[in-house]
Amino acid sequence: MTFIWAFLIAGSFCLIGELILDNTKLTPGHITSLFTVIGCILAFFGLYDKLIDLAGGGASTIISNFGYLLYTGAYEGYLANGILGIFTGMLTKGGAAIVGSIVFAAILTLFFNPKD
């Protein structure tokens, strides 16, 4: 059943992203930022934890999960270290995603040429 929920949740996010992309003048970068902020908002209200429990990888592999990681890291850092913990906690949880993105982008630039 988890596979079905993962497909439905991740597919719903993709559907919403495609509808926004097709019907507005927003770029993929805008939509990526929008979904990151939506992940933060859902985490703030405690809804993203429920999505992860329901859909597993369907909710923890999409871009809104990055917003969830940033929010939960900042909140845990705040509880542990006060105001400065917001920044250190955010980097603690989201650091692997940031470093992974940079490393994979660097590797892919070795094999592909940009379009002119």
Your description of this structure?
With 116 residues, the protein is an all-alpha fold. It has one domain (2-111). Helix content is 85%, strand content 0%. The protein has helices at 2-23, 28-44, 47-55, 57-60, 64-81, 83-111. It is globular and about 45 Å long.
Task: Give a quick summary of the entry.
This protein has 6 helices and no strands.
User: DSSP helix count?
Assistant: 6
- Strand content is under 5%
Largest sheet properties? none
What is the string of helix and strand elements? HHHHHH
* Amount of helix: over 70%
Secondary structure layout plus pairing:
Layout: H1 2-23, H2 28-44, H3 47-55, H4 57-60, H5 64-81, H6 83-111
Task: List key phrases describing it.
single chain, 116 residues, mainly alpha, 85% helix, globular
